[in-house]
Write a structure and sequence with these properties.
The structure is a homodimer. The first copy, chain A, has helices spanning 4-21, 28-35, 39-51, 69-74, 77-85, 88-91, 109-125, 128-137; strands at 56-58, 64-66. Chain A is mainly α. The first copy, chain A, has a two-stranded antiparallel sheet. The structure holds a DNA duplex.
Chain lengths: 144, 144
DNA sequence: TCCGAAATATGACAAAAGTCATCTTTTGCT
DNA sequence: AGCAAAAGATGACTTTTGTCATATTTCGGA
């Protein structure tokens, strides 16, 4: 469904959000440990998200990654997925056809539409703020 | 969503089904041309489906691929996807966690569940027989 | 001012997915 | 029996994705 990069990216962001919510910055080695991901790869993904202004980074001693409460509220999974995996997942044909729309549909088009809108709904209604609530309560987890 | 192999596989099968419905066998070069896919790759995928007994092949002159009406009725996209891409899509965690179920869910688990069940519904209710109806009528297409 | 902690940048490497080409086997037809 | 048409099998190659390692930049603090 999503690429590994995207999975790690979402989990990393959620972890950063949890910590930022508690007033702490986190360093990359810590993130990778807590979400069980390869350090360098995770760093690369975070860089993308910094460029896209979803999360902020601070260099030097006591630096690390952090995210504002405002960003947690406004950033949805739809944003993150689009940044990392691109917009194809929201638009592309289920059978891989270049041309596939209401007018010239593939055999799966109309049924696939339902799946996609369910997916869109999930991604657009999931903000970081909402998703970390379970993690903070301990009812959801980010590794294993 | 699906791998290229799976997309080609489904389109190839649909084309074979259309032809078989009209009483004709099709050869691989014809299939590849009509669904706009690479010949050898398509052949490899069809081989998998032959082994899985979804479609039958006949060697030698006037040979080719064919599928029985019975198989068209009973074969769903769920079968095909499972054969080619494996069962992971029906079961794996949206955030890539090894452990993720009702008891120990990831932050996305319950929302993801809806997406997956919509996907399952689509795949399980789509038989080859139903899908080729549009193609035969000319209202849906398999290439471009 | 210098040291060390941190992100950033870059490139090499590995694994998986997708593609291409060639050879082998089977079989109908003459 | 031999030819040709077809699938089947195999391996090499390419591209994409994921991973690792190493240098570079930035900056706080002693």
């Amino acid at each position: 469904m999503f690429s590994k990069a995207c999975e790690y990216g979402i989990r990393a962001l959620l972890y950063v959000a949890v910590k930022s919510h508690g007033g702490e910055r986190v360093i990359i080695s810590d993130i990778a440990k807590e979400i069980d991901s390869p350090v360098s790869f995770t760093a690369k993904i975070l860089q993308q998200l910094v460029k896209a202004a979803v999360v902020t980074s601070v260099k030097g001693p006591h630096g690390g990654f952090e995210i504002t409460d405002e960003k947690m509220k406004t950033t949805t999974l739809a944003h993150i997925v689009e940044i990392i995996d691109g917009p194809a997942i929201f638009r592309s044909c289920g059978l891989g056809l270049g041309v596939c729309d209401e007018g010239t549909p593939c055999p799966l088009h109309f049924k696939y539409h339902n799946v996609r809108s369910e997916l869109k709904k999930m991604l657009e209604t999931s903000t970081l703020e909402k998703l970390i609530q379970g993690v903070e309560r301990g009812s959801t987890h980010l590794k294993l």
